Amino acid sequence: MPPRIFLIGPGGVGKTSAGRALAALLGYAFVDLDQAFCDRIAPIDAFLRTEGYERYIEANAALFDTLCRSHAGDVVMPLSSGFLATHIRPDLVERNRQAVRRSGVSVLLLPSLDADAAAEIVVERQLQRGFGLQRQRELEKFRARFPAYLGLGDLRVVSTEPPAEIAARIATLLRDR
Asked: What confidence tens digit (pLDDT) does each residue in 113-122 have?
């Protein structure tokens, strides 16, 4: 098993839920980048309102570096949805992509390879979280990022199965690598 497993993809694909299940299955630590941001820096929505998205990307990249240094191995880490796929600060996005490649194995999670079907599933899940998101804006953001997501990941799991089943599938893919 690789020492660091990064779960990547849009928000609402199950990175956190499947990540917890995967960490438990493998006996790994679980460190969620979004939760670490909230715990160490500020709630993400409040930070975005006061500092803006560009500053969030910078702070999130710095936090990722800190977390990788403090968790040398045996960790499952879901990454923020835009960490590897946003048009803002492409220099940092590329740096993040290189850091992920150097630091562990990435697993892309998507509910479908069809952009429209995936967008409907992901946006519906996002709206149910109660963050006050707007459907049309989230659909546009997902569709804009979808091609970038398709180019990411050392491994790929396309599924709408429950998180425990996705975690078991990831564990099998990692063992068979």
From this structure: 999 999 989 8
Strand (E) positions, the chain?
4-8, 29-30, 75-78, 105-110, 155-158
Q: What is the pLDDT of residue 11?
A: 84
- Report the distance separating Cα 170 and Cα 157, nearest Å: 7
Task: List pLDDT tens digits, range 52-102.
Answer: 999 999 999 999 999 999 988 899 999 998 899 988 999 999 999 999 999
State both tokens at 117.
């079907």
What CA–CA distance (Å, rounded) separates 44 from 46?
5
β-pair partners for 6: 77, 106
Extract long-range pairs of 82-89: CB within 8 Å, 24+ residues apart.
Answer: 82/57, 82/145, 83/8, 83/33, 84/8, 84/148, 84/149, 84/152, 85/10, 85/145, 85/148, 85/149, 85/152, 86/53, 86/57, 86/145, 87/144, 88/53, 88/54, 88/57, 89/54, 89/57, 89/58
Give phi and psi for 113, each to the nearest 5: -90, -5
Single-letter residue type at 172: T
